[in-house]
Specification:
By secondary structure, the protein is α/β, with parallel strands linked by helices. The protein contains 13 helices and 13 strands.
């Protein structure tokens, strides 16, 4: 295992690109992605995810030194690496089952170029056992090499938080693991060389894999609990936010807030753990109950909005609704697994005409993913709306003049408890 390796990063999305840039400050890095358009944009210094600035990217694209970042869509160019880090997406299908195809394809690509003493590290979210039981066999078959004799593997779960400029990749403690004690130490040292927050060496790959899926499963369950509380307290005509503020005065109360749970992590990871549990003959009741609760919140919000509209004698059928926000979280262009679409779909089921306004999202991407014509600028909004629903708390929405677009019978619903209370008719 080479002391100063050339590192290949497979997948240059929200996880892979920041990692590639961080490593490129000290190592020669080859960033590979099958998306030619993405590669072309990155070569010009443009990152549509907004995780890396143009200045940061252009700085590491200078490969005249012994370090720096080369970006390519040519898989043959990664063959000179000694360390391969796979950061491809691991989504779920429409039945909420894990989709490992991108990870399997990446394993094949790495297998074609693997050489003796190379190290392969998986960062993609998986259930326990995927690295050694799914990825490694593919690499062995394609390469003709023997695991833990000719090449080694590790797992280091990604902890990227899209849009978070405080907790960036080098400032988040990194869990590491390896297939042998020597490989584990090597992988831990490699990450420790760039992660200023430090590392935690897990005793096995399966422990590291399990740690990742329970991090987000725990958050998912906690949010599901407060979402259920919100439903109960709305029936009791009690403000949930006021209850949470009062309860938070106790020293050991952990404050979570109700809302839509989307994105590529919290809304997906629990299904990976659940799938593995089911394969082993155990029905994960709490995990799946949390998922059912959170997956149903979009339609619940829409129902509550319509109920308020009827109460105010507002126009429902053929009325106009404005949904503010289509990304899965605030101040971020990421629309993956956004649950705002569930609100939109249910409002349309009530025959409301729905406009979607989001200054952060990419209109072309939204059209391709959801079939929605996005409004990116306020000047293109209608004169007034029968209901306005804030689903994402972008900073720009603080300056949005909601009263300009409402009438006496309009309903304003705040999913994020973000707007001034005197402007809203309801919130979670």
């Amino acid at each position: 295992m080479k002391k100063d390796p050339t590192i290949a990063i497979i997948g240059l999305g929200y996880v892979g690109l920041p990692l590639a840039v961080a490593f490129a400050a000290k190592y020669k890095v080859i960033g590979f992605d099958i998306n030619s358009k993405r590669v072309s944009e990155l070569k010009q210094g443009n990152d549509f995810t907004l995780e890396i600035s143009k200045e940061e990217l252009q700085e590491v694209l200078d490969t005249s030194n012994s370090f720096g970042l080369e970006i390519t869509d040519d898989a043959s160019k990664i063959e000179d690496a000694q360390v391969y880090i796979i950061t491809v997406p691991t989504p779920t299908n429409k039945y909420n089952q894990p989709v490992l195809i991108p990870l399997q394809k990446a394993s094949e690509a790495v297998g074609k170029v693997l050489q003796k003493n190379d190290v392969v590290i998986i960062e993609s979210t998986v259930y326990p056992g995927v690295t050694e039981d799914v990825c490694v066999p593919i690499m062995e078959e394609v390469s003709g090499l023997s695991f833990n004799k000719d090449f080694y593997a590790g797992y280091s779960p990604e902890r990227i938080n899209p849009g978070d400029k405080k907790h960036t990749v080098t400032k988040i403690l990194k869990v590491t693991s390896g297939s042998t004690p020597e490989a584990a130490e090597y992988i831990d040292d490699l990450y420790a060389s760039i992660i200023t927050a430090g590392t935690h060496l897990a005793p096995s790959i399966k422990v590291a894999e399990a740690a990742k899926v329970i991090e987000n499963s725990q958050r998912d369950i906690n949010i599901a609990f407060v979402n259920e509380l919100s439903k109960i307290f709305r029936l009791l005509d009690i403000d949930t936010q006021e209850v949470l503020e009062a309860a938070a005065t106790k020293w050991n109360f952990i404050k979570f807030t109700p809302g839509l749970v989307g994105g590529h992590c919290i809304g997906v990871d629990p299904y990976y753990l659940a799938q593995k549990a089911i394969e082993e003959g155990y029905n994960p009741e709490i995990i799946l109950a949390g998922r059912r609760m959170n997956d149903g919140m979009g339609s619940y919000v829409a129902h509550e909005v319509v109920k308020l509209m009827i109460k105010k004698d507002g126009k429902v059928k053929n009325g106009n609704a404005l949904v503010m926000g289509i990304t899965f979280k605030e101040n971020c262009p990421d629309i993956r697994n956004s649950k705002a679409i569930d609100v939109i779909t249910e409002l349309k089921n009530y025959h409301l005409n729905v406009d979607v306004f989001d200054p952060w999202a990419n209109a072309e991407e939204v059209k391709g993913e959801f079939g929605i014509s996005l409004i990116s600028e306020e000047k293109h909004l209608k004169e007034n709306y029968d209901s306005i629903i804030l689903t994402v708390s972008h900073d720009e929405f603080l300056d949005f003049n909601i009263e300009k677009y409402t009438t006496d019978t309009s309903v304003v619903f705040d999913v994020k408890s973000f707007l001034p209370e005197d402007l809203i008719d309801g919130r979670l």
